[in-house]
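Q: What residues go here?
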């Protein structure tokens, strides 16, 4: 039974959240999630890049790599497509939203090496998704990543007022919170999981 793009989109957000079930994209997730505004900006950028590069990489894979029997170059080609797209996005954000550009700092160009984005492109090939399934999976994964980083940023903002033991401050409490969020998302697993 083939999963429809609609179901795949919702499954990628909740039951198969790229961050909370596969733990891909943790570096920028932990580093940028200190403030809600910068987390939202990075989450939107990651969502946009995930959606666009999933479609672009599907087209490149199906119409260039497979016909010329050079599928073994997929890692390099996918990274080149992602890097070029992120560079274009970086130029646009710097030009039109300079406050977001400066608040994201080094993490905007590091979207290129965000393993969640590369992982979505690889999952798309491994699971043999169609073009629409790839777009739906990319968009859902991006929204799931955005949802996770916004939840962590909100919780971390609330924790500023609370007394956190010294051994758990910083990344320690963030990882504990992420683990609890991942357990909460497991509750959705009876709905539809992506295999």
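A:
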């Amino acid at each position: 039974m083939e999963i429809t793009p609609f179901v795949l989109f919702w499954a990628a957000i909740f039951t198969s959240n790229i961050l909370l079930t596969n733990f891909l994209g943790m570096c920028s997730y932990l580093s940028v999630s200190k403030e809600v505004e910068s987390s939202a900006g990075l989450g939107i950028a990651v969502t946009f890049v995930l959606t666009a590069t999933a479609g672009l990489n599907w087209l490149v894979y199906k119409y260039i790599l497979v016909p010329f029997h050079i599928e073994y170059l997929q890692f390099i080609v996918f990274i080149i497509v992602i890097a070029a797209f992120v560079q274009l996005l970086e130029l646009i954000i710097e030009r039109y939203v300079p406050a977001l550009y400066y608040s994201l700092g080094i993490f905007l160009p590091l979207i290129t090496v965000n393993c969640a984005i590369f992982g979505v492109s690889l999952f798309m090939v491994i699971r043999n998704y169609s073009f629409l399934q790839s777009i739906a999976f990319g968009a859902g994964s991006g929204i799931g990543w955005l949802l996770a980083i916004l939840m962590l940023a909100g919780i971390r903002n609330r924790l500023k007022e609370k007394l956190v033991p010294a051994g758990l401050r910083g990344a320690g409490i963030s990882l504990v919170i992420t683990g609890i969020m991942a357990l909460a998302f497991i509750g959705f697993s009876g709905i539809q999981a992506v295999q």
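A: Context that may help when evaluating the design: The mean pLDDT is 89. The chain has one domain: 5-190.
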